[in-house]
Amino acid sequence: MSNIKALFDGKRITVMGLGLLGRGLGDTLFLIRSGARVTVTDLKTEQELAESVKKLQGLPCTLKFGGHDPADFTDADMVLRNADVPRSSEFLRIAAANGVPVEMDESLFCKNFRGTVVGITGTRGKTTTTVLVHRILQAAGHRAFLSGNLLGCATLPLLEQAGPQDIVVLELSSWQLQGFHDARISPHASIFTNVYPDHLNRYSSMDEYIADKKAVYLYQRDGDFCLFNREQPECAAMADEAPAGRRFFSVSDVPSQWNIRLPGRHNLENIAAAIGLARLMGVPDEVIRPAVESFNGVEHRLQWLGKKEGIVFVNDSTSTTPAAGLAALEALSGRSILLIAGGSHKNLDLVPFAKAAAERCKRIALLEGTATDALHEGLAASGAADKIVGRFDAMAPAVDALLSHARPGDVMLLSPACASFGMFRNEYHRGETFMALVRDILGSP
Fold this sequence. Notes:
Layout: H1 2-8, E1 12-16, H2 23-33, E2 37-42, H3 50-54, E3 61-65, E4 78-81, H4 90-97, E5 102-104, H5 105-112, E6 116-121, H6 126-139, E7 144-148, E8 167-171, H7 174-183, E9 189-192, H8 206-213, E10 225-229, H9 233-236, E11 247-249, H10 265-280, H11 285-293, E12 303-308, E13 311-315, H12 322-331, E14 336-341, H13 351-360, E15 361-367, H14 372-381, E16 388-392, H15 395-403, E17 410-414, H16 427-442
């Protein structure tokens, strides 16, 4: 702890973005413990952030909500920027103009951590792959920690726990990887799961989005490696510019005799990526296999919730893109699907998802949002207007409407293919809302 205190003790640090997912809170608590003079500032109101604010009450920090004060970006030794803060923020420009360094959680951690970092990025499959890699490394006897773009996981506090012999496995979003570009560092071992259109409500183009992702491998050195998805040409092509060499994973890497619990080809790709990385890190198949075969997946990702009167309920709330929605429909191919979809726009093409939903779903309930008009039009154009049971401004009536059409053998699937903002705080809140309703239906606590 003494070395950590030397990094932050007495420093004036502005935490830009407390957020709702717990990472900003975790970083703030760590900086306070490390002796920093912390100011937390967020555009959201104190009421919107009440759950996190309550945990900071009585602690030696300054809290400012509902806007930013330029003075907090000039009279500071460092700004710690939340990944949700766009790089174009005028307040980041103010900090730069005044010589105040701007850091991000994961990259700042990696600059100061002396152990091994595993980084996993991609459009889809990041969380599943990250959690499985962590499980395998632990099964192999490594002291491994899990963090990054995961609910409630702040990475900086791991400086208090993880040592030079340990491994930290990070899920990394495109925004988090901006900090790696700034620091010109990459994880020692990494995976690029795939690349699909996403976040085009915040990026000007796919090229800009992919450019951020590339930090997962661009600054690797001899002895490092990145695994690319051989199944997807766009991803595989990136291996040509990887300084640590070309390495790939493919579904054919998953032994056919292994008992895989996760549905869908996309999950086979995730498993193949985890197997490939583990093998390169020296883990034998006799350790990898039981870890893979016992893996049931991650909450909110094609999560099987239970069955009542022959009707199965599946929570895929982290389906925030059309590609994710398509993967869910493919994974449940041949089943009679009652689909809940719709939500906020990310400027992505919903037509392929609408066509697939029109073909494969028995009934469809639409959640209101900025993308729902386009999805509704796509479904109607594909001949599925009569399958739409309604448009709803809450989850409960959508579930009830589909239940009235449900028969034994049906699967009620929440896979929105859209972002959650507007009706819900985030995709996790959306999934938790669905899960609570399903628990009531199942009669489980």
